[in-house]
Specification:
Blueprint (H helix, E strand, L loop, with lengths): L7 H7 L17 H8 L10 H8 L3 H12 L15 H5 L1 H10 L8 E2 L10 H7 L16 H21 L6 E4 L2 H19 L4 E5 L4 H12 L3 E5 L9 H7 L4 E5 L13 H10 L3 E5 L18 E5 L10 E5 L27 H37 L4 E3 L10 E6 L4 H7 L3 E2 L15 H5 L4 H5 L1 E5 L6 H21 L1 H7 L13
Parallel strand pairs: 1-11, 3-4, 3-5, 5-6, 6-7
Antiparallel strand pairs: 2-8, 7-8, 9-10, 10-12
Bound molecules: pyridoxal-5'-phosphate (PLP) and FE2/S2 (inorganic) cluster (FES).
GO molecular function: cysteine desulfurase activity; iron-sulfur cluster binding; metal ion binding; pyridoxal phosphate binding
Cofactor: pyridoxal 5'-phosphate
Organism: Acrodontium crateriforme
Length: 511
């Protein structure tokens, strides 16, 4: 049974505003129960287990929309079905057909969301867990003298336990932060500055394909006199263990290598790195923002000493994260935020209970549903990858085996990435990380893999998440195929390729 009283306010909050497809009727909202019946989305009402929901999750938009229309009385003419094939007329009249379909959407409709690495939608069950801590239960969890403080503290500690359980840690080793950016700053600068004070070590090893917040933290430390080694990666995106071993020196304080890359999804050899670092008595930090909750993580098996986690990548709230800091052997670090000494003195400031509790619930759900989510996401990923790679001149970026399936990065040769993104406006996609998406520079991650500027420019990241549906993938596949073909037809280079000209043999005149 649902644990929530069915009053009007709750009903309103439970209304789902998610749109399943670009062509869904505008302003859809529904309660979880009607939603699961009509739109195939997993219910967050507790009596519905994910297993029971499987049958509806895979239902098609077409069927969903018929049911929705019958239920809401929306006339068929008002609700367009997603077209899974282009009409001959549209193909004949490209500008009027193909791009129009991409850019002109009914008022209120939103693109299909396929950018799960940038952020994930908050799971309604997470929001449910958070709400009481924004209203009645508003105590400061650090207040020790009354029940308001005690009840909030209890819930915050329960959340801490859920996060610890997800990564095989002790709850005392979880420090709440504002996100993975802060956790990365805290780990890298904190360990480095501790060692600098003790005058012992002044060297850090990281990797060229890390997230900007890791690279930038290292650059700041360089200004403070630290030496940094930026390890290269192989063409599959993985580091070479020999390179790491060679780079470790007696002065090395920390190795920071991410678990899952946010642009290409490759999973670095965590256990091997951890084993090597432990044997050399070097602390091992990992940015696991894209890994925790998605793949099994055990900080002890991996010999990880510090780990950065983000709540909004696991269907939890934005502006929330955690840092795992090992207690045995104890990791020493200087705090970057000082004050009242909360969070073991490592991160002062009053906690935001609702955010902590939301992150805890998100972690609990990830653990409980990881097997189920992984199966679904892997199946959708396979379908997408197989479909896209069956097109001419497309290639997968990153190692095909050691890759988190929810992150699919594909290069479409002879198509300019920005043009393709513009032609795919009905799908929310990105060519790389959200924080660098405003820049027209080719991705530094793909460049580190050895991609040419052109190839990096023509790459798109497809991020599949918990709420992505089979019908959405069908739509995306068809749309990408049609629009890539359309853009290629406009490209003079493509024409030459079709004529059998090897572009590498052409000497371009300089003007
Ligand atoms: C690998 C990686 N590290 C760090 C971050 C930053 O996380 P947050 O938004 O929680 O600060 C992100 C998200 O953009 C990420 O993908
Ligand atoms: S509209 Fe909420 S998922 Fe159906």
């Amino acid at each position: 049974m649902s644990h929530l009283a069915p009053n009007a306010a709750r009903q309103a909050l439970r209304q789902c505003t998610r749109r399943l497809s670009v062509n869904s009727p505008s302003l859809i909202s529904c309660t979880p129960r009607t939603c699961i019946a009509t739109h195939g989305r997993r219910s967050y009402v507790s009596e519905s287990s994910p297993k029971n929901a499987t049958v509806t999750v895979e239902s098609t938009i077409r069927k969903d929309q018929k049911a929705f229309m019958a239920e809401t009385g929306i006339a068929a003419k008002d609700a367009k079905m997603p077209t899974t094939g282009m009409s001959a007329d549209a193909m004949m009249s490209p500008a009027a057909g193909i791009l129009k379909q991409a850019t002109i959407m009914d008022e209120g409709t939103r693109p299909i969301y396929l950018d799960a690495q940038a952020t994930t939608p908050t799971d309604p069950r997470v929001l449910d867990a958070m709400l009481p801590y924004y209203t009645g239960m508003y105590g400061n969890p650090h207040s020790r003298t009354h029940a308001y403080g005690w009840e909030t503290d209890k819930a915050v500690e329960q959340a801490r336990k859920h996060i610890a359980d997800l990564i095989g840690a002790d709850p005392k080793e979880i420090i709440f932060t504002s996100g993975a950016t802060e956790s990365n700053n805290m780990s890298i600068k904190g360990v480095a500055r501790f060692f600098k004070r003790s005058g012992k070590k002044n060297h850090i090893i990281t990797c060229q394909t890390e997230h900007k917040c890791v690279l930038d933290s290292c650059r700041h430390l360089q200004d403070e006199g630290f030496q940094i080694t930026y390890l290269p990666v192989q063409s599959n995106g993985l580091i070479r263990m020999e390179d790491l071993e060679k780079a470790i020196r007696p002065e090395t304080a920390l190795v920071s290598i991410m678990t899952v890359n946010n642009e290409i999804g490759v999973v670095q050899p965590m256990e091997e790195i951890g084993k090597l670092c432990r044997s050399k008595k070097v602390f091992f930090h990992t940015d696991a923002a894209q890994a925790v909750g998605k793949i099994p993580i055990d900080v002890n098996k991996m010999n990880v000493d510090l780990m950065s986690i983000s709540a909004h990548k696991i269907y939890g709230p934005n502006g929330m994260g955690a840092c795992y800091v090992r207690r045995r052997p104890r990791v020493r670090l200087d705090p970057i935020i000082s004050g009242g000494g909360q969070e073991r003195g490592l991160r002062s400031g009053t906690l935001a209970p609702a955010l902590c509790i939301g992150m805890g619930e998100a972690a609990r759900l990830c653990k409980e549903e990881m097997e189920y989510d992984t199966k679904r996401i892997a199946a959708l990923s396979k379908k997408l990858k197989d479909g896209l790679l069956a097109m001419e001149h497309t290639s997968l970026n990153g190692d095909a085996e050691r890759q988190y399936p929810g992150c699919v990065n594909i290069s479409f040769a002879y198509v300019e990435g920005e043009s393709l993104l513009m032609a795919l406006k009905d799908i929310a996609l990105s060519s790389g990380s959200a924080c660098t998406s405003a820049s027209l520079e080719p991705s530094y991650v793909l460049r580190a893999l050895g991609s040419s500027d052109e190839s990096a420019h023509s790459s798109i990241r497809f991020g599949i998440g918990r709420f992505t549906t089979d019908a959405e993938i069908d739509y995306v596949l068809e749309a990408v195929k049609t629009r890539v073909n359309f853009l290629r037809e406009l490209s003079p280079l493509w024409e030459l390729v079709q004529e059998g000209v090897d572009l590498n043999t052409i000497e371009w005149s300089q003007h």
